Amino acid sequence: MASRTEYLTMRTEEPRAFVNLTEKVRDIVRRSGVGEGVVLVSSMHITSAVFVNDNEAGLLSDIEAWAERLAPRGDYAHHRTGETNGDAHLKNLLLGHQVLLPVTRGELDLGPWEQLFYGEFDGQRPKRVVVKVLGDPR
Amino acid sequence: MASRTEYLTMRTEEPRAFVNLTEKVRDIVRRSGVGEGVVLVSSMHITSAVFVNDNEAGLLSDIEAWAERLAPRGDYAHHRTGETNGDAHLKNLLLGHQVLLPVTRGELDLGPWEQLFYGEFDGQRPKRVVVKVLGDPR
Amino acid sequence: MASRTEYLTMRTEEPRAFVNLTEKVRDIVRRSGVGEGVVLVSSMHITSAVFVNDNEAGLLSDIEAWAERLAPRGDYAHHRTGETNGDAHLKNLLLGHQVLLPVTRGELDLGPWEQLFYGEFDGQRPKRVVVKVLGDPR
Q1: Which tens digits make up the pLDDT trace of B46-88?
Q2: Count of CB atoms within 10 A of residue B13's CB?
Q3: pLDDT confidence of A29, banded at 50, 70, 90?
Q4: Does B46 touch chain A (CB under 8 A)?
Q5: Does any CB of chain C come closer than 8 Å to the CB of residue B93?
């Protein structure tokens, strides 16, 4: 089996942001030497999400508004600890903590509009994403 | 390692539909020669979902109504591109883009009521689902 | 390839409960002999969830209240079968059916606050969770 593990450090300028990770993960897959396998891309924090969707600015603003509607900023029991990011934990659950992408013939095997996003909901500090490629060598 | 990758082409007659993929994926697992491993089943489109739930008609109508309530058809910023399927993108995020099922002793290893569904929210055209089985040979 | 499959039987005293599975899964990973790989942790029932979040009591009560708000107990078409747990099926979809955790140098590779939870929404009876570790031997 071939494998490769890399950690991406995300530090968004804004508290909330979406970052397209597709090319970074494509490069890691190529460097991994894996021909037939999968790549796990997972947030290592529970206040940010990893998800697949379309890279269209209007849609990304729709996703942000939707997450805010279903998991709004507000008062949460979690805030009794001094934290203020209860909504970010719920947005992680709503949009998803991780994705697993297929690797076929040494390449990310995505549909025409599938793009991989990191969704930050409590940013402006360094956070990590683990990328692990596993499979048969090329 | 053994592996097998197949692509299912889905073309639902209705714009919205649920399709039970369990038997199709079970067959692919058997043909893969994998004894101990996993099978990734992932939509290659971001307007349809892949999820596990119970194959009960009332429940499936509940799931459809619930997805419509939380991610309703309506006006979205995404529609400025000419698209009309903003809600389908959100339903993908709500119900999930993919599942990973265990393969044990050469068979799909599911609980008594676990069934695998494709959820279409913008159908009537061909869309693909990737099925990738990976693991130790039988 | 090394692999190990274990089944955890969950039987919560309350109808709804969150159970921290992190240490149990960490032990299974160590016993698996896998050095570089992944561990799939998946509910085998569709009325309970497996998800990653922070082990903080206030936050867990926020997650429970949020799931109840978005997928409330109530009357569902599914109940025509005699079942009363329609909301539990929707909570499974909302919080997630499974997670895939990275295994690096023989250990669960988690961020500082990542903890693994079983979320029961229709408990007081035995239910199973499958844990499958796969990867290169240590």
Answers
A1: 999 999 999 999 999 999 999 999 999 999 999 999 999 999 9
A2: 8
A3: very high
A4: yes
A5: no
In this structure, are residues A2 and A33 in contact, taking their beta carbons and an 8 Å threshold?
yes
Tell me what pLDDT residue B49 has.
Answer: 98
Residue B106, Ramachandran bin (φ over 0: left; ψ between -120 and 50: alpha; else beta): left
Q: Which two tokens stand for residue B50?
A: 């892949």
Mean pLDDT (chain B, rounded): 98
Q: Which residues of B touch C94 (CB under 8 A)?
A: 94
What's chain B's length in residues?
Answer: 138
**Chain C hits for A42, Cβ within 8 Å:** 100-102
Mean per-residue pLDDT of chain C: 98
Provide the phi-psi class of B124: left if phi over 0, else alpha when psi is between -120 and 50, else beta. Answer: left
Q: Which of A4, A32, A48, A97 to mutate to probe the C interface, most C CBs <10 Å? A: A97
The closest of B25, B51, B45 to B103, measured between CA atoms, is: B25
Nearest to B135 by CA among A96, C34, A29: C34
Q: Give per-residue burial for A79-90: e unless 16+ CB within 10 Å, then b.
A: eeeebebbbbbb
pTM: 0.98
Amino acid identity for residue A90 in this structure? L
Is B79 in CB contact (< 8 Å) with chain A?
Answer: yes
Q: Who among C44, C77, C93 is closest to B51 (CB)?
A: C93
Q: Is B65 in CB contact (< 8 Å) with chain A?
A: no
Task: State the nearest Cα–Cα gap between C42 and chain B, in angstroms.
Answer: 8
Q: Nearest to residue A46, comparing CAs of A98, A99, A92?
A: A92
Which pLDDT score is estimated for C31?
97
| Contact residues, chain A, for C58 at CB < 8 Å | 76-81
In this complex, the chains that touch C, judged by 3 or more CB pairs closer than 8 A, are A, B
Q: What is the predicted pLDDT for the residue at B126?
A: 98
Kindly report, residue by residue over B111-131, the tens digit of the pLDDT.
Answer: 999 999 999 999 999 999 999
Distance CA A32, CA A27 (A): 9
